[in-house]
Fold these 3 entries.
Entry 1:
Amino acid sequence: MRKIITIGEILVEIMATEIGDGFLEPISLIGPFPSGAPAIFIDQVAKLGQPCGIIARVGDDDFGRLNIERLRRDGADVSAIATDPDRPTGSAFVRYRADGTRDFVFNIAHSASGAIAPTRAGSELIESADHLHIMGSALSSPALAEMVFAALESIRARGGSVSLDPNLRKEILAAPGMREALDRVLSRTDLFLPSGEELFLFSEHADADRAIKDLLARGIRTIVVKNGAKGALCHEASGSWSVPAYPVTEVDPTGAGDTFGATFVTFWLRGSPPRESLTLATAAGALAVTRRGPMEGTSTLAEIEAFLALHHSEESL
Ligand code: ATP
Ligand code: MG
């Protein structure tokens, strides 16, 4: 089986137990929960039984140990998670507002995640990999972006493949070098996983069909557009497929895109037909939003299949 790796932030998330605005007075919090988009992604890949690993950095603290133990337990290769002697593990405090948007307090840039650097274990993981998944957040610092480019070239030179989830909104494109880094990665991407508006990041066209044609013409083999509660679409030169989202009660949307992406990438690499990969990924995304905590929403294949069996038996009643 092909080994999937990613590079990027590992965090803990600590969340307000009640809906409201900001953190300006004492409120009840729950956490720490393991988190970080690349970490959630790789945990979901591991739970599907695919060989996988992550290049990351945590502090010498319980927030770091909590993440490493979770990823190890679920089957990910944690050998390239370095421990920083000086910086703490990254964190994010989050509170949901009544309209569903979120307030965050982040400690990432000055945490261990902000000091990810090349290591021997990291090089060994890259050498063992067949596929690199890139999250936009890994391109936000020039030093980390250089590591990503080097991993990309090494894996591609050995015949491996690359997927990209920009995981950002248009506003963050203003970060210095971000646009160039994204363009550079996109031209070497096989599988592109934008959500909603991100489809238009790389195209002159505001029209979805033309943007897709553009991207396919640039050499991208598969484009998967994530549309939250509206489901997802897959486009290849040979056709397009669409699946609706499963109706579920949303408890916590954080991590849906990452579990969806991990499931799609895994089945795409296994050679599954697009509709099947989309269906499994959509079920994984639906399961993710029903559970509180970003990484708590990842699922085993047995859980995804049980969800699909239940859903489709209800549909035929
Ligand atoms: P993120 O905010 O984590 O970056 P994203 O924009 O990358 O998310 P979404 O489109 O929000 O990704 O979610 C990915 C997939 O998960 C969707 O395509 C859908 O299949 C499923 N999903 C997300 N939200 C819901 C929901 N409320 N109900 C059912 N399924 C959902
Ligand atoms: Mg996303």
Note: Residues 165, 167, 195, 257 surround magnesium ion (ligand 2) (CB under 6 Å).
Entry 2:
Amino acid sequence: MQFRNFKMVDYVVFGRGSFNQLDEILAPKRKSDAPMIFLVDHFFEGKALPSRIPLRGKDKIIFADVTLEPKTKQVDALAQQLKDEFGTVSGIIGIGGGSTMDLAKAVSLMMTNPGSSADYQGWDLVKQPGVYKAGIPTLSGTGAEVSRTTVLTGPTRKLGMNSDFTPFDQIVLDPELAADAPVNQRFYTGMDCYIHCIESLEGTFLNEFSKSYGEKALELCQEVFLTRDHWDATSDDKLMMASYAGGMSIAYSQVGVTHAVSYGLSYLLGTKHGIGNCIVMNHLEEYYPAGVDEFKRMVEKNHIDIPTGVCKGLTDEQFDIMINVSLGMKPLWENALGKDWEKIMTREKLRALFERL
Ligand code: NAD
Ligand code: ZN
């Protein structure tokens, strides 16, 4: 097909307190006595949120350990645990940041697709719809709530399960849930959105669809991280919509240099996505001059520390691993640098960039 015909999230609810509608939203999706599984970010263990989850029958809350980003092994183990315990489930509800939402999407798919989630890392390899899945973000920025991928670290690569079966059936955007996010984490994840906008708007894949969403998301990021003089509830509202629009923008285009490089860092060093993107963006004046300048002003205004020297002391072999992972992200490089990207981003040039981080 010449034009991408992309699958979107089926239902969206937005508003402060909309989480309270969850019972009503899930009721028609319940299948006889198969439970709803609530995969909840472990940050909320012992907090008030779990007591607000509308548990019915055999429903279960599983706290997701997101100390590390999701792995194919973790997804496979969770899906197996649910099959052993319940046979089948009515749905998987992911409540948390990008990591928890990605886990929920992947576990939903692995309830119905055979083998390991590692078999489906790539584009359009998933063959069966998963079980019903809903995403409820508690951090804003990744766009995982709207995307057609779930990013997993597998035995040989960090790559998403990109497919038409991957988007959520339902998302609940309740900015109240993001209110307790620590300032640094909120910034790192928020910058993921900012960087999605820069990479989409500066990319060669840009079209009016992506541009419309990207420009709006960029404006919202600028408001919350530069113009507004303090953080309040409205800032959470705006950043949650920025994340949504930023995700929609890259859905019809692609990310770019920051992501390609930060995937390499993350694969080798386990650097998390948000902070990894910030570490890389800090050194990308050559590719995104205006974006990097504005990014640095946002860092300063919000008093955030961006780590430096993260590749000091790495061996040639380790640099090679990062370079291989990074150069493997072909569509990202093509979006950023055009069809001849391989002539521009040589292994030597990329090595020099990694050394600066
Ligand atoms: P995260 O989900 O990894 O969470 C970061 C930290 O914040 C964790 O310690 C978590 O416990 C904590 N946390 C979450 N919500 C909180 C809250 N309300 N208050 C306090 N702490 C809270 O962070 P993220 O940046 O949202 O997600 C990063 C992940 O998203 C990566 O795994 C990345 O690969 C993935 N990602 C996916 C897509 C996609 O399209 N599927 C896009 C971008 C990133
Ligand atoms: Zn990202």
Note: The domain at 11-178 is CATH 3.40.50.1970 (Rossmann fold).
Entry 3:
Amino acid sequence: MKGIIFTEFLDLVEDTFGLEMVDQIISESELPSEGAYTAIGTYSFSEMLQLIQNLSKHTKIPVDDLLLTYGEHFFSVIETNYAGLLATYNDPIEMLSSIENHIHVEVQKIYPDAELPTFIVQEKTATTLIMVYKSNRAMHHFGLGLMNKTFEHFNSSAEIILEKIKDDGTEVKFIITKH
Ligand code: HEM
């Protein structure tokens, strides 16, 4: 998992819960990196899993809710760092249906070792999109946060329903209806 996912996560934890919380979740996790991340480095996903599970334990906020909030925050990171890529779109359904064959393809060119999910488009119209998310990392709520902000970015909104295909969240169907 890319370092930018860690650095932005810890910044958000610090802003929301304070530096003590950052220190606490780092010291309680078994981190080969010892919690020292650089944006361009690559680290084990198990480090992120432990950090977020420990944050969930202390805040009593479910992991999926934390991932949703983090996904919404991460969209602003994308707006700042990948403005050119965003500018190639003028419609949220077009953008979301292009994650697999354009957006994440470009991300993989920038970071050859990025670990990205798969999004398979099952149905698409001008106002609806059904996509299946697949990833061993089960970060579907991070994706949901990014999707919410994608609609906001285009001054639009949508109803987004998540249906788990696999109980462990490694395969999830997103049913998206633009308002
Ligand atoms: C992961 C970039 C749009 C869903 C990632 C990662 C990067 C990235 C750098 C981390 C990879 C790693 O740590 O190895 C971008 C950029 C985007 C974009 C630059 C737009 C310009 C989106 C959108 C979604 C999405 C719109 C909406 C669903 C995800 C998910 C992950 C991810 C769910 C977590 C990894 C996983 O689930 O396996 N993306 N992304 N991305 N991205 Fe994107």
Note: The radius of gyration is 16 Å.
